[in-house]
Design a protein that fits this description.
The chain is mostly helical. The chain has one domain. Helices cover 65% and strands 0% of the residues. The protein has twelve helices and no strands. Helix 2 crosses helix 3 and helix 10 crosses helix 11. The radius of gyration is 20 Å and the shape is globular. The relative contact order is 0.16. About 3% of the residues have low confidence.
Length: 253
């Protein structure tokens, strides 16, 4: 894992409580019990963002590439089409746990019964680039970790990838793509990719200005990361526990 993201995550301290927990995509889904257009859109967004951990789990439990793709599509098709949220209640606070529990139920019930056509009739729920998915899977650590652990690791990296993508988009939106490209490596507090003075010279800024820009970037990264986690839980307590779990997973990896 890149050192920069590990350092940035490790510094993400829980903020003091500021009133009611915000309405998030996952809390909207839970409140609506899979009913209503806003709930459906929120759930689809979350599924599209975190399909890869599902794919990795299926590959690690023995499915070939095409079967894993088919099962991933079939799982999300059923998950979105049925009242899935009413079936598995113990883990409803956190989408990560709920998805994995639901997936296990799906695989147990459908693996032998469903053909590729029955699992979705060719419907595409999430966009899966087979070559890209297999390239990513080939780079997963080859050790004795259980599929459940690998699912959590993949989930953690999906959160980091999405956070970085949103951070880059934020800078590009303000016409600061060059600044972001230059100081991105500074998300690591021990960054070694050139000194601040060298970055300042390349950017035509003072060293003090670059250090301030790095400070602001780290704060923005942490804010986006927290938002990514918050969107997949229902309560403040779950958010803090999920952030702690994310840090633990990344440290162990």
């Amino acid at each position: 894992m890149p050192q920069k993201t590990a350092s940035a995550v490790a510094s993400t301290h829980p903020p003091e409580s500021k009133g009611d927990f915000p309405k998030t995509r996952w809390s909207v889904v839970l409140a609506a019990q899979c009913g209503g257009a806003s709930s459906g859109r929120a759930l689809e967004d979350l599924c599209r963002a975190y399909w890869y951990p599902i794919y990795v789990y299926l590959r690690r439990t023995g499915s070939g590439p095409h079967d894993a793709e088919d099962l991933t599509q079939g799982f999300f098709l059923e998950f979105l089409a049925r009242d899935s949220l009413s079936r598995v209640t113990p883990e409803r606070g956190r989408m990560r746990s709920f998805l994995l529990t639901s997936l296990k139920h799906y695989v147990t019930n459908e693996w032998r019964k469903e053909t590729a056509q029955k699992r979705g009739g060719g419907a595409t729920i999430v966009s899966i680039d087979q070559m890209s998915a297999e390239e990513r899977f080939a780079n997963e650590p080859r050790h004795d970790d259980s599929p459940d652990i690998l699912f959590d690791q993949s989930w953690a990296y999906a959160v980091l990838d999405s956070t970085m993508a949103r951070l880059r988009k934020y800078y590009e939106g303000f016409g600061k793509a060059a600044l972001f490209a230059e100081i991105e490596s500074c998300l690591s507090w021990g960054e070694k990719d050139g000194s601040y003075a060298e970055k300042a010279a390349r950017l035509g800024l003072t060293e003090a200005a670059v250090r301030f820009a790095v400070h602001q970037m780290r704060k923005r990264y942490q804010s986006i990361l927290r938002g990514q986690i918050t969107d997949t839980v229902a309560t403040q307590e779950d958010a803090e526990a999920e952030i702690a779990h994310l840090c633990a997973v990344l440290s162990a990896g």
